[in-house]
Design brief:
This protein is α+β, with helices and mostly antiparallel strands. It is 58% helix and 11% strand. It has helices spanning 3-19, 24-58, 71-98, 104-137, 147-171, 175-181, 186-192, 194-208, 253-256, 263-268, 289-295, 299-318, 334-347, 383-400, 414-425; strands at residues 217-220, 225-232, 236-241, 246-250, 260-261, 271-279, 359-362, 370-378. A 5-stranded antiparallel β-sheet has the order 4-3-2-1-5. It has a 3-stranded antiparallel β-sheet with strand order 6-8-7. Helix 3 (71-98) packs antiparallel against helix 4 (104-137). It is rod-shaped, with a radius of gyration of 40 Å. The protein starts with a helix and ends with a helix.
Length: 426
């Protein structure tokens, strides 16, 4: 304390002793406290005004619609926390200017302001990391790098170190003494932070191997997850299911368990159609001449029928086959012609990807009939468009079955059984 401030202090103490006898030091401390508080308030208003101007100029494009995840919101929090740190430092300086060294009052002010500065310094670091996260979320490449998990790890480590520093200041001991004592608590710390450590390792593996990213379609039946990944954090991964519910999965579970990532389908530009229609096997037969003439009128079959019938006729003549017996020679079947029709239909379909696998195959007959499977890919991965394309194709398939004298297999219903009973009783 300089000579001028010492003279002012002595004057105030004498004045309080004359007019408020018995407690001049208490009144002096109250005056100093009021002055420090007033100075801190004025400094807070100035810093707030300046910081708002700077932040709005820097993030002017987001000022219209700020939200809790925008850089503007985090920048405002950072400016506010830094201003509180500066206010704490100013309070300490002011206290040292007006309060003599070694007094209890000065010790209390220093202890409180030290904790204040440490707390808001930590919050400032959190706000700075939130700005990095908000800026990263707006970049397309950030989805493939789980930055949130790394930032949460930094926050966790900073919180532990800050707590150690705060306790060491309260105890008036070196932080190294507390750090040296943590070695004995390593097992407890590993147990407490087990999920965080496993999540950090899992996040690194997911990022390094490009296994999962925000926006991917993840399917993990064990956890009831089937939807879009909306967040990859340090310890959890959030999935918004198609029914709009949220499933939370431990991050390390994505390494220890298996899951399906549909990103490959989305990136390929095509989505698979793999569906069968079951035909009634009693409706399968050879095509007679009248059926061939009728089917030749179809644009998708005329060329196939002409070329195939010519080859069949040449082979049967060459081998001198007795065609009066249906067991001899080659003949066209309605189901085989139907398969070729479906292939031609898919090859000229505007929404079927022609660069990917395209086939119509006959599967092994079952009690449910003869399965004819469509295996192809649409040229869109949009779910709604995909379902419409698939439905339109099978609507058409069901409608053209009678043209080939084929019937779709249907299990008997209650109505069928009742009609049968009525016919037998009649």
């Amino acid at each position: 304390m300089t000579g001028t401030r010492a003279q002012l202090r002595d004057f105030l103490l004498q004045w309080f002793g004359d007019y408020f006898p018995g407690s001049p030091f208490l009144w002096y401390d109250l005056i100093v406290l009021a002055w420090i508080a007033l100075f801190a308030l004025i400094l807070h208003l100035i810093l707030r005004l300046v910081s708002q101007r700077l932040v709005k100029n820097r993030f002017s494009e987001q000022a219209a619609q700020p939200d809790s995840k925008s850089p503007l919101y985090s920048a405002k929090k950072l400016a506010r926390n830094i201003s509180f740190v500066l206010q704490g430092a100013v309070v300490v300086i002011q206290a040292q200017l007006w309060v003599p060294e070694g007094t209890t009052f000065l010790y209390l002010i220093k202890m409180i302001t030290d904790q204040w500065i440490i707390l808001f310094a930590l919050l400032s670091l959190f706000s700075l990391l939130d700005i990095f996260q908000a800026i990263s979320d707006k970049r397309p490449l950030s989805a493939h790098f789980p930055l949130r998990g790394f930032l949460q790890t930094i926050k966790l480590i900073a919180s532990v170190l800050t707590a150690i520093l705060a306790v060491s200041l309260l105890m008036n001991k070196s932080p190294l003494i507390l750090l040296s004592g943590l070695g004995a608590l390593s097992a407890v710390l590993l147990l407490v932070f087990k999920d965080a450590i496993l999540g950090l390792v899992a996040g690194i593996q997911l990022s390094a191997n490009n296994m999962l990213a925000v926006g991917d379609w993840l399917e993990m039946p064990k956890y009831g997850a089937d939807g879009d990944v909306i967040d990859i954090a340090l310890t959890t991964v959030k999935v918004r299911n198609w029914d709009k519910t949220i499933t939370t999965i431990p991050t390390y579970a994505l390494i220890s368990d298996s899951f399906k990532n549909w990103r490959g389908m989305s990136d390929s530009g095509g989505r698979r159609i793999k569906r069968s229609i079951h035909l009634e096997m009693s409706s399968v037969h050879f095509l007679d001449e009248a059926a061939v003439v009728a089917l030749k009128k179809a644009d998708l079959l005329s060329e196939y029928l002409e070329s195939t019938l010519l080859v069949i006729e040449e082979q049967n003549i060459t081998k001198k086959v007795d065609m009066s017996c249906t067991l001899n020679g080659r003949r066209l079947t309605n189901v085989g012609t139907f398969r070729h029709y479906l292939v031609a239909l898919l090859k000229q379909h505007p929404h079927i990807h022609q660069g990917m696998t395209l086939m119509v195959r006959q599967l092994a007959p079952t009690t449910q009939g003869l399965p004819i499977e469509i295996y192809a890919f649409t040229n869109t991965t949009n779910w709604g468009e995909y379902e419409n394309i698939q439905s339109d194709i099978f609507d058409h398939i069901l409608a053209v079955l009678p043209a080939f004298s084929l019937r779709a297999h249907e299990a008997p219903t209650g109505s069928d059984i009742r009609q049968l009973i009525n016919l037998n009783s009649g």
